């Protein structure tokens, strides 16, 4: 049975959230975010389970910035919509969709509302000891934009690092603004600049924007984060507890990479960090992690990062001596063993297609990368299967065949649609 606690919108309360929850994909309105954050601010460090939090209607109105006496039907619509909202969170090889709330009740005669978090959220809001971010509720309840609240949390997480870089695609996804203001200029003026002004005026941090271009097009933005109260105790993902503010800070480079890895659901240990940086250099490690963040459907982020680091130490996909040769040999043996004893002789193009799919699944890499990897062992692979040079199509024949196959596929789709 859940315990019940009457709460007030005390803006001095701390909101403490797991960084995995902050990095989750979701889109909530400003009112909905404030409801979640107000209830989260009532969780105590020693709470072992969620309670049913009872919020007086007058406090609810104060929290939402509503004037007058709203009808229950209006408030019910707000919480009903919120209960239907879900967020996505990546845990290892799973992408999980979960609702924020499991229970809302209106006590009409008492003038209160009962609210309870979904039990799935327990590891992300209760008894957090590491990899969390904390801030005063006062920093967000005054914000008028839902994007400002999300940007505040994403930057507060990196306050000690003092900078954070996003690709535009990743940033839009985190803000739930994938299809909003497709032109960067509009996105900047309607989302980023208003958030910058609000954070400057109403919160304990502010930021400057630096744009990174690919040609003439802005494809990344860097937030340079500044604390307004430098002497204040900072509570974020790099603190293990709320105390010990005098503890020496970890390497800022490690913090940066660790925070980037967290957005993939990967907890980057100091041992792994040191091994990667010593072997491949910090610039290359940062580059690969950023590339991984921006690639959809990477099922095994840590495996993919390791593989791509081994592929190159300078970003140009040049083979690493010795280790690369052994890796190609292992992959070749794996593929040959899969197809050598086939009962029927499959056509060249079908074997190639299936081999690329095998690489994609075995290494948990996107299809484009799997195709690139296959080209490096392609000739030896077909020779091992007994294909003579005359059995394999020329590049021109292969291109013509693929074109013909794609055209046939389109015709079949059109035919099915006409049925």
Would you write up a description of this structure?
It is a single chain. This protein has 419 residues and is α+β, with helices and mostly antiparallel strands. It contains 17 helices and eleven strands. Strand 4 and strand 5 form a beta hairpin. Helix 11 (270-280) crosses helix 12 and helix 15 crosses helix 16. The N and C termini lie far apart (56 Å).
List the helices and strands and how they pair.
Blueprint: E1 4-6, E2 14-18, H1 19-22, H2 30-40, E3 52-56, H3 57-64, H4 72-83, E4 86-91, E5 94-99, E6 101-107, E7 112-117, H5 122-125, E8 132-136, H6 138-141, H7 146-156, E9 163-167, H8 168-175, H9 184-202, E10 205-214, E11 217-227, H10 252-262, H11 270-280, H12 282-293, H13 301-311, H14 323-339, H15 348-363, H16 367-384, H17 395-418
Parallel strand pairs: 1-3
Antiparallel strand pairs: 2-8, 3-7, 4-5, 6-7, 9-11, 10-11
Helix pairs in contact: 7-9, 10-12, 11-12, 12-13, 14-16, 15-16
């Amino acid at each position: 049975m859940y315990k019940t606690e009457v709460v007030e919108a005390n803006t001095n309360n701390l909101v403490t959230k797991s960084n995995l929850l902050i990095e989750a994909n979701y889109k909530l309105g400003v009112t909905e975010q404030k409801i979640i954050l107000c209830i989260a601010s009532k969780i105590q460090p020693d709470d072992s389970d969620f309670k049913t939090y009872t919020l007086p209607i007058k406090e609810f109105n104060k929290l939402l910035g509503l004037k007058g006496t709203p009808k229950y039907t209006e408030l019910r619509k707000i919480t009903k919509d919120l209960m239907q909202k879900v967020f996505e969170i990546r845990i290892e090889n799973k992408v999980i969709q979960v609702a924020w709330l499991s229970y809302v009740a209106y006590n009409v005669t008492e003038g209160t509302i009962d609210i309870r978090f979904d039990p799935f959220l327990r590891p992300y809001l209760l008894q957090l000891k590491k990899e969390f971010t904390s801030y005063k509720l006062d920093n967000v309840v005054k914000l008028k934009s839902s994007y400002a609240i999300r940007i505040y949390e994403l930057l507060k997480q990196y306050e000690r690092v003092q900078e954070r870089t996003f690709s535009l695609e990743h940033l839009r996804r985190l803000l739930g603004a994938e299809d909003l203001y497709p032109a960067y200029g509009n996105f900047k003026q309607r989302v980023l600049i208003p958030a910058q002004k609000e954070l400057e005026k109403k919160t304990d941090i502010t930021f400057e924007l630096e744009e990174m271009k690919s040609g003439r097009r802005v494809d990344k933005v860097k937030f340079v984060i500044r604390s307004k109260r430098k002497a204040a105790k900072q509570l974020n993902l790099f603190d293990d507890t709320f105390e010990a503010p005098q503890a020496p800070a970890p390497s800022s480079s490690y913090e940066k990479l660790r925070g980037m890895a967290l957005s993939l659901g990967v907890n980057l240990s100091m041992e792994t960090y040191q091994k990667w940086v010593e072997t491949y250099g910090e610039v290359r490690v940062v580059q690969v992690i950023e590339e991984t963040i921006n690639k959809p459907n990477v099922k095994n982020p840590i495996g993919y990062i390791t593989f791509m680091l081994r592929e190159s130490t300078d970003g140009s996909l040049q083979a690493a001596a010795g280790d690369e040769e052994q890796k190609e040999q292992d992959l070749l043996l794996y593929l040959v063993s899969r197809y050598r004893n086939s009962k029927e002789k499959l056509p060249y193009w079908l074997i190639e297609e299936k081999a690329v799919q095998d690489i994609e699944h075995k290494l948990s890499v996107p299809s484009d990368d799997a195709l690139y990897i296959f080209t490096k062992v392609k000739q030896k692979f077909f020779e091992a299967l007994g294909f003579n040079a005359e059995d394999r199509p020329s590049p021109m024949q292969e291109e013509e065949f693929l074109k013909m196959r794609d055209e046939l596929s389109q015709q079949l789709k059109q035919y099915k649609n006409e049925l």
